[in-house]
Each structure stands twice: as C-alpha cells, then as structure tokens.
Amino acid sequence: PTAMKEVFIETPKVRWTDIGGSADVKDALTQVIEWPLKFPEKLAELELESSKGILLYGPPGCSKTLTAKAIATEAGLNFIAVKGAEFIQSYVGESERALRGIFDKARQASPSVIFFDEIDAIGASSRGQQSGLNIVTTLLNEMDGIGGLQGVLVLAATNKPEILDPALLRPGRFDELIYIGPPNLEARIEIINLRTRSKPLDPDVNVAALALRTDGYSGAELVSVCMEATKSYMKRWVELETLGEQMSTTEAWITQQDFDHALGK
Ligand code: ATP
Predict the structure, then answer these.
(1) Which GO molecular function terms does the record list (predicted)?
(2) CB 3.0-4.6 Å disulfide test: which of 34, 84, 86, 191 passes with 20?
(3) What is the pTM of this model?
(4) Predicted confidence band of residue 232 (pLDDT cuts 50, 70, 90)
C-alpha cells in the first residue's frame, strides 16, 4: 500500500495570454524553451546543452503553477503535477520508490513535464540529516537520466529557494532560476481585465484605479477581489430573479461599489 496519490497526466490549457504580466517571464524563458525546440542542431553544434530543470521561485499566489502549465501548453508537453509534501512517507524507501515511479511515468508520456510544487518539502538541505538525503539523491539521479524538452523536463516551484540543498542547483539539475514576483501595475490591470472580460462590468469601473489601489496584492488575491465583486452582483441578481423582476439598468452591472466592497473585505 502506498500513501502516494495516483499520478495523473494532464494536457494543460493555460496559455501565456491567460497570465497577467507574463511577458517578462516569457522573455526570460525564451532561451530555455524556444531555442531547444527551434534550433536543436545549432545548439548541438555549439555544444550547448538545453536545460533539464527550471526552478520558479517567488511569493505564494503569483502564478508559478500557471507559468509551469503555460510552458507545457505552449511547448506541447504532457504535464504531471506533484507536491513535494506528497513524498514525505513514513516507510523507509517508499518516497524514493514513488519518485522513481513518477519519472517512469513521465518517460512513458514524453515529451513531458514533471512539475514539483513546493519542492522545498523534499529538497531542503536540512532534510539531509534526516531521511531526506535519499530522496534528494534519488531526484538528482533521476534528473541525470532525462532529456529536457525533447524528453522529460523538470519544473519546480518554491517560495523558499534559500533553503534548498545546493546540489539541486548545480549545472544539469535546476540550472535555470526564474523569479516570479507580485504583479506590477500593468500586470494587475491585465489580471483584472482577464478576470472581468466575460462579465457584465459597468463601463464606469476604473480598472486602472483599482490596479493602483491593489499594490502588493498577489495575483491570487486580485482574482479573489474580482470574485467577491462578482458575488455582490450575483446577490442582487438572485434577489431580483426570485422576485421575478428584471434588473434595472444600474443594477445590471458589476459596479465600482461592488469592487469597493470587495476591497474592504
Ligand atoms: P503557490 O506558491 O501558492 O502555489 P503559485 O505562485 O503557484 O502559488 P498559482 O497557483 O499559479 O500561484 O496562482 C494561484 C491562482 O491565482 C491562479 O489559479 C489564478 O487564478 C490566480 N493568478 C495568480 N497570478 C495570476 C496572474 N498573473 N494572472 C492571472 N491569474 C493569476
């Protein structure tokens, strides 16, 4: 019996255009993702090896998972997502076996991506004193035997890169580090627009002003503000629907007030 959840192979559908502020990250990834796919012969001729491991790091809720999925979608790779904490098993050797199983699965599904969310749960250097040493070694061994974009590419996310075992960051392992920070003003505008574009938004809602007021919000927090505002509208809609009435024109929108209310929460 294993405590490991069953592994699912997904075909993600997240495009770069679904991620507000993704332009910078996309740029940072061009050499790592585009070159190996477009110019494999040239890279080989120059003896440039393509990266097999990319570490996405930054604060929670700021699109690391979305970015991993977009990489897979745009490069046409199958996607296997696992959480670091899922590998912390009580039986000796079980975590290592589970990890090898993931890589087997990924090889069968190649070209594919394995995405380790919260990689620090298995890759923290402090785990070296405990049984963690074996899981890190297993991960390193498995990464030595994969082919990157043409075979199996490993992506990982963490908000504590500083606690990772340095062995994980050596060439041939996670040798590309990409910072994914909180959305800047422009990105916040994009996220709000993305999250309201298919909804009845009052044209008087000032998206730029909302973005200015939400400095320091994560992408996930912005999405939740948009959801709260939409819920206020939904509440009005349900009340009138129950009464069998048509919404008046002023009530038929998600309004600035709905956003003010959401931001107050
Ligand atoms: P964690 O470290 O908590 O796992 P994460 O960085 O992986 O977070 P995601 O899971 O990618 O963050 O984002 C969480 C949710 O927040 C997404 O599903 C999405 O709804 C929203 N979100 C975050 N950033 C953005 C963004 N830049 N554009 C659009 N949606 C975003």
Answers:
(1) ATP binding; ATP hydrolysis activity
(2) 191
(3) 0.91
(4) very high
